Amino acid sequence: MGDRFELREVGVDGDDGPIVSGFSARIPADGLTAVVGPSGSGKTTLLRLLNRLDDPDAGQILLDGRDVRDYDVLELRRRVQHVGQVPVTFPGTVADNVGEGWEQLLPRVHLGPGLAEREADRLSVGEAQRMCLARALSRRPDCLLLDEPTSALDAASKGEVERLVRSLADDGLTVVMVTHELRQATEMADRIIEVRPPIRPGPQAPR
């Protein structure tokens, strides 16, 4: 199916030095790609670049062979949905949060139809994370960006979300998932991209 994303010599600068430096990678359109690396290596930053929640200071990012900056940003974010590690609920019911198609989407993320009229802020963390996935799917995206989607969940909820994410990838959705768990990446992903912290210059010795 070819590449969904290509990152070419991408760099992002922070206040204390580079967050990402000269990073290149290809992310295929099929399956689940896990992005792993130590804390501070820029995993979340790289994920946010893919739908322009942030922009790089250097390099280029392509979506389906076209620079992401050439897309209308609303079209880009509809096609490339981002779900963070802490579920975000909006005022209203679960059905209000998910929007059009909730009748089909709630079962898909293993939420019973009886939850449709529950206030979203009364869901458990695991239920809220699955609702956020349903909300992202309601936009009919080509790609899901998941930032540590199970880090705030208990063991039972984590397993449910892992199985759901894997099934979405098997159904043909491009899934890019940041995780700090090597076990999770190894068991779930079709491919793994490792990110390492950029080398920062040390303090200069006094003269």
Would you mind describing this structure in some detail?
The protein is an alpha/beta fold and 207 residues long. The chain has one domain (3-194): P-loop containing nucleotide triphosphate hydrolases (Rossmann fold, 3-Layer(aba) Sandwich), CATH 3.40.50. It contains seven helices and nine strands. Strands 6-7-8-3-9 form a five-stranded parallel sheet, with helices on both faces. Strands 2-1-4-5 form a four-stranded antiparallel sheet, with helices on one face. Helix 6 links the parallel strand 7 and strand 8. Helix 4 (102-108) crosses helix 5 (125-137). The chain is globular. The N and C termini lie far apart (57 Å).
| SSE-based structural type | alpha/beta
* Mean pLDDT metric: 92
**Biggest pleated sheet:** 5 strands, parallel
The CATH architecture is: 3-Layer(aba) Sandwich
**Measured distance between first and last alpha carbons:** 57 Å
Spatial strand order of the main sheet: 6-7-8-3-9
Tally of contiguous helical segments = 7
Order of helices and strands: EEEHEEHEHHHEHEHE
The gyration radius over C-alpha positions equals 18 Å
